[in-house]
Specification:
- By secondary structure, this protein is an alpha/beta fold.
- Helices cover 43% and strands 17% of the residues.
- It has 21 helices and 21 strands.
- α8 packs across α14 (448-474).
- The longest helix is centred in the middle third of the chain and has 33 residues, at 413-445.
- The radius of gyration is 34 Å and the shape is elongated.
Length: 710
């Protein structure tokens, strides 16, 4: 911009929730941007992944439900209208501490502005076709989110799919505490992915398949037919091993079609992105050929790939070179024969290149320097390079341009004059290539919806093929899904613990609750570190895996659908809220007792242990009675209060079980086997000895125990 003002403008605003670049996103999980509108206890939440175009809407009552939703979604950014600043001190009490909060003005989230923004984005006269009539707060949140995206991406529109409204009862409810206790996506101790349930079951090859599996795990199904559809697909892929292996080989190198389509539609993709997209689209007919004859419902969308996508892949292959450069402005993107104007410019550049080669040959002969080289530098243009030793012998018409340590650089008037023409031709050629690329990118972007539809089907196939590989190699069974309340599992195994054990085999255990002749509540006793907590978590994990449509690690299973899974396993002080361990424990217990139903699965560990013995026993007894009686929830209650074994004598729907140990002299061997009957001892002192407590302390503890028992 010599001699003139350089035009400056904001072309893009980068925020945690609006990132599109592959290197800045986690490939195997969604990157959610959320917006919330509150009116008292009523709230509406819009959730968008701008990289994949997904858009979900929630409208509920109660800020506790909002807090739970935000905690389990792990959103990258939350838009909150009316907030003064995004500092921690201004965060509402329901906002998770780790969440990135972005303050927003109220006006874009008003009913009028939100409606205008949504009509403009989706090109509709009214919002009835979007199904938002009965979602006023969610509609405002969605409109404000759309305006925020438009402001952060001036000059381009980030494509979002039509809103998907998530209603209460659409999925199995798994609150934040249960997700943490069951370690669904991260370990409870240090928050690592390795050791989580998702780590144990994810065998998908593509990023979009991994994201699909994560969504299934986060929102298990309540529709028995949908569950059975996924089970059927897994069954076909388990039974047809050659098909499964061929499908997985074809999927392994496939790019992330969802996000590639999003970057194309937003005008942010590279030529390499389009080549990767073409490669993925070309695999759709190959997948259809492999899946021909498959009958399960989830595989049907892939049997007839859309002709427009096959044609799009052919167009990309025709126009783009196979290995384009990373830069879009320096040419080398488009094949010869695509555009006559580009071919003409390239022919003229070839002529100029021939002229340069002739100049180099001629000047070598004229100067008597066979090592002379004609080269190009971005800053200095074309020049003749000779060694310092031969610099004094160059012809008089050469003009010195630059002196380096080992060489001298010269130009000639003829070379300088021709350089201007060559650079002009290159600039025109590069600009024309860029224009052709942008036209091609826009054409691909216009097919973003169709590409994403195909990508979702491929993602589902990848997730199902991964679950089938897991089932086939790890000996999983297909659980029978029933309309009853039963949870009957024969020789079940914890999928994570089984894979982490390297020097011992996992000891399987069975469970049978909720059926007509089975108890509703199990009182589970036994020593510490004997496997009670593993048994609890195993029961919850297998119920959840069954409802996401997966096969499970067991010999056989018959499982009725649960509406919610509750766990209370371990607790720590919540210093920020001023709550002790016991208060945290009681708050979690209260939440369970307020929301559990007869179709819920409740897993409790050591209720009442944080207070005096008789207080704790009384609370544990009352909680057990309420769960088994008034609520009728399917419950496993692990405890060291052996007095609770007496509850089985008072109620027909309560049974006692224990974790077996083998005692030989002073040695204690944990068998990790759950059996009927209640334990009479907790072996706490022996467990302390095994943990390394000094011998004098252990001996004194035994003396005190004998005195108390007497």
């Amino acid at each position: 911009a010599k001699g003139a003002l350089l035009k400056r403008d904001i072309t893009r605003v980068l925020t945690p929730g609006t990132v599109l670049e592959e290197g800045m996103l986690s490939a195997r999980r969604n990157n959610w941007l959320a917006a919330v509108v509150l009116e008292g206890e009523h709230w509406g939440l819009a959730l968008a992944d701008v990289s994949t175009g997904e858009l979900r809407l929630f409208e509920r009552q109660g800020v506790e439900a909002l807090e739970q939703e935000l905690q389990q979604l792990e959103t990258a950014e939350l838009l909150l209208p009316g907030l003064e600043s995004g500092s921690a001190s201004d965060k509402p009490s329901w906002c998770p501490e780790r969440l990135s909060l972005t303050p927003q003005p109220r006006n874009p989230f008003s009913a009028k502005e939100a409606e205008r923004a949504l009509k403009q984005r989706y090109g509709v006269q009214n919002l009835e076709g979007l199904g938002l009539q009965e979602q006023p707060l969610a509609r405002r949140a969605t409109g404000g989110l759309a305006l925020y995206l438009d402001a952060s991406q001036p000059g381009s529109t980030v494509p979002l799919e039509r809103p998907q409204i998530v209603y209460p009862g659409d999925a199995l409810v798994v609150d934040h505490q249960t997700r943490r206790n069951l370690e669904l996506t991260a370990t409870q101790r240090d928050g690592q992915f390795q050791g989580s349930l998702l780590w144990a079951i994810d065998r998908s090859h593509t990023a979009m398949g991994a994201r699909a599996l994560r969504r299934w795990l986060e929102a298990p199904l309540l529709d028995a037919s949908a569950i059975q559809g996924r089970q059927d697909a897994i069954g076909e892929l388990v039974d047809k091993r050659p098909l499964r292996l061929a499908v997985r080989r074809l999927l392994r190198p496939m790019g992330d079609l969802e996000r590639l389509a999003g970057r194309c539609a937003a005008g942010r993709c590279s030529a390499r992105d389009l080549v990767a997209l073409a490669d993925g689209l070309e695999r759709l007919p190959l997948l259809a050929g492999l899946l021909e004859g498959c009958r399960s419902e989830p595989l049907q969308p892939l049997l007839e790939p859309r002709e427009e996508l096959i044609a799009l892949a052919a167009l990309l292959r025709h126009e783009l070179v196979e290995s384009p450069p990373p830069s879009l402005s320096e040419g080398g993107l488009i094949h010869d024969g695509v555009d006559e104007g580009l071919d003409e410019l390239r022919n003229r550049l070839d002529e100029q290149q021939n002229w340069l080669e002739e100049v180099e040959r001629r000047e070598r002969q004229g100067s008597g320097n066979p090592n002379l080289r004609l080269q190009f530098h971005r800053s200095f243009g074309y020049f003749l390079a000779v060694s310092r030793a031969r610099a004094s012998t160059v012809p008089d018409h050469w003009i010195r341009r630059q002196t380096l340590t080992n060489e001298e650089r010269f130009v000639t008037p003829e070379l300088k004059e021709r350089e201007g023409r060559i650079l002009q031709l290159k600039a025109r050629s590069h600009q024309l290539e860029y224009d052709l690329f942008c036209k091609l990118r826009d054409h691909v972007g216009s097919h973003a919806a169709a590409i994403r539809e195909a990508a979702r089907a491929v993602a589902s196939l990848d997730a199902l093929a991964g679950l089938a590989e897991l089932a086939a190699t790890m000996g999983y069974c297909r659980p029978e899904i029933t309309t009853g309340r039963e949870l009957v599992i024969h020789d079940g195994r914890h999928p994570v613990v089984e894979q982490l054990l390297s020097d011992a085999a996992f000891v399987p255990n069975s469970i049978a609750i909720g059926a007509g002749d089975q108890p509703d509540l199990i009182v589970l006793t036994g020593p510490n570190a004997s496997g009670k907590s593993c048994y609890l978590r195993q029961s919850g994990v297998l119920q959840l895996m069954a409802q996401m449509g997966s096969w499970i690690p067991a010999q056989s299973a018959r499982i009725g659908l649960a509406d919610r899974i509750f766990t209370r396993v371990g607790a720590v002080d919540d210093l920020a809220a001023g709550q002790s361990t016991f208060m945290v424990e009681m708050a979690e217990t209260a939440n369970i007792l307020h929301h559990a139903s007869d179709r819920s699965l409740v897993l409790l560990d050591e209720i009442g242990r944080g207070t005096a013995t008789f207080d704790g026993l009384s609370i544990a007894w009352a909680v057990s009675e309420h769960l088994a009686g008034d609520l009728g929830s399917r419950t496993v209650f692990a405890t060291h209060y052996h007095e609770l074994n007496n509850l089985a004598a008072e109620r027909d729907n309560v049974a006692n079980f224990q974790v077996l140990v083998e005692e030989t002299g002073d040695d204690l061997v944990f068998l990790h086997q759950v059996s009927s009957g209640g334990a009479s001892r907790s072996y706490g002192i022996e467990a302390a000895r095994l943990a390394g407590v000094p011998k004098p302390v252990v001996q004194r503890a035994r003396q005190v125990l004998d005195q108390l028992a007497a």
